[in-house]
Structures are given as C-alpha cells and as structure tokens.
Design goal:
By secondary structure, this protein is mostly helical. The chain contains 10 helices and no strands. The chain is elongated and about 80 Å long.
C-alpha cells in the first residue's frame, strides 16, 4: 500500500503547504493568473465529510500544472519531493474513477427533496456491484499499485456491509416493503440477486418468493388485521378525519 499512501500523502501535504502562509497562497494564485478564468487553491479532505477525498484529488489533478510551476521556484526547492510524477497522476485518476460513483449515490440520496427511502436497497446493490466490477477489473493486474488498489477495494465491502447491517437490523421489513411498493422496481432487485447466485427465482428458497411472502405477511399483520379489528364506525371516522386534514393542508 506504500505507493497509494505516498500519493495521497503528497496531495494532502501540498494542500497544507499552500494554505500555510499568505505568501504561499498568493504565489500559487499568481501561477494561475491569465491561464484560467478563476484561480483556486488546493483543498483538504475531512474524514467526516462525504466525497471530500475525491474532491481533494480532483482539485489536485486540476491544479497539477500550476503545482509543478510553483515547485520549480528555487526558493521552494526543499518542497520538490512533493512533486507528483506521471505514474502517480495515473494512480490519482484511477482512484477518482473508483470514487466518483459513490459521490453520485450520496448526492442523489441527500440532495433530493422527495422521499428516498424506497431507493435504499437499490443504492446499496449498485454500490456492491460497482465494487465487484472494480475488483474484477483489477484482479489479474500485476502492477504493484493496482494490486494495492485491489486490496483496498476488497476491504471496502466489509465497511459497507457493516452500514447495511445497521440499517436492515432496525428497518429491514420497512425497506423491503418500500422497495416492493415502488412501481419501477417491485421484485426486480430480488430476482437480480437470484440470477447473480444462479438460483431459480421460482424456487421457494430463493430471495424473490421469500421476500414476497414476508411482504404479504407484513401487510396482513400490520395493516389489514388492524383495520379488520377496528369497528366500522371508527374506521369511517378515521377516514373522514384524514380527508379533512388533507383538505386543510
């Protein structure tokens, strides 16, 4: 993992170096004047902020030409070990390609102003599929940094599985119900799971019939049974009050 770590360390240290003093910041901005419309500085990533590492790498890659120019200044000769080589930029671009889909999913879920609960299972499926695809692409690569990246991506599903387990443990049945009630998905995701595991979706032990049966039982026990036990007059009152509330809203 040394090559990957060194590449990331260089980008982080250079970002700190430029923001360290006003002189560094101003001279770095001067390197860009007349060459791009808006001059910017390198940025740092934050562990608790989604996509910040991707943003750090994208900004560093965008400013690569000016980073090289700034480091050529004789008075900054001591910082030249932070120079990023062509091979290291190749690593940066590859890592960005791995991370970009995650930014799409996080922004897609966090920026919407509508309900996203029914998308949770699909988003997790897409993330797992993306990591499987990356691992398949890197599995036979022998370049050291690609082997390191393969190892890093191989560990990522473990972290994602931990998050997924926390969600499904408390809201599993609700997630399944919301997913099945989505008219654009219904049982398609579960059939995809069966197909991926080479299981006949019609088999009683497959995911599709199991989740379908669980959903029907959930609706029967949590919705239909409750309404059947409710007196007709009470049910009419509830429905009328709901209509009045909706009208007032």
């Amino acid at each position: 993992m040394k090559v990957l770590k060194l590449t990331f360390i260089k980008q982080r240290m250079f970002a700190v170096l430029i923001t360290l003093t006003a002189g560094h910041r101003n001279e770095f901005i001067d390197c860009q004047n007349g060459k791009i419309r808006i001059a910017v500085r390198p940025i740092m990533d934050v562990k608790t902020r989604w996509n910040s590492t991707l943003e750090l790498l994208e900004r560093a890659h965008r400013l690569g030409e000016f980073t090289r120019e700034w480091l050529k200044n004789p008075k900054y000769a001591e910082y030249r070990p932070l120079f990023t080589t062509h091979d290291e930029w190749t690593i940066v671009k590859c890592v960005m390609e791995v991370l970009r889909p995650f930014r799409y999913w996080t922004l897609s879920m966090s920026k919407r102003h509508t309900v996203t609960f029914h998308h949770v299972i699909s988003v997790y499926n897409d993330m797992f599929d993306h990591m499987d695809g990356v691992m398949q692409a890197l599995a036979k690569k022998k370049t050291p940094w690609k082997e390191n990246l393969f190892f890093a991506v191989k560990l990522a599903p473990q972290k994602l599985s931990k998050y997924y387990a926390e969600v499904t443990r408390t809201m599993g049945m609700l997630l399944i119900s919301a997913h099945i009630l989505d008219p654009f998905r219904k049982l398609q995701s579960f059939r995809k799971w069966d197909k991926g595991m080479d299981i006949n979706p019609e088999d009683e032990t497959s995911y599709t019939p199991q989740f379908q049966e669980a959903f029907l039982k959930y609706v029967e026990n949590e919705y239909c049974a409750n309404h059947r036990r409710m007196p007709v007059n009470t049910l009419k009152t509830v429905l009328s009050s709901n209509l009045v509330t909706s009208a007032m809203a």
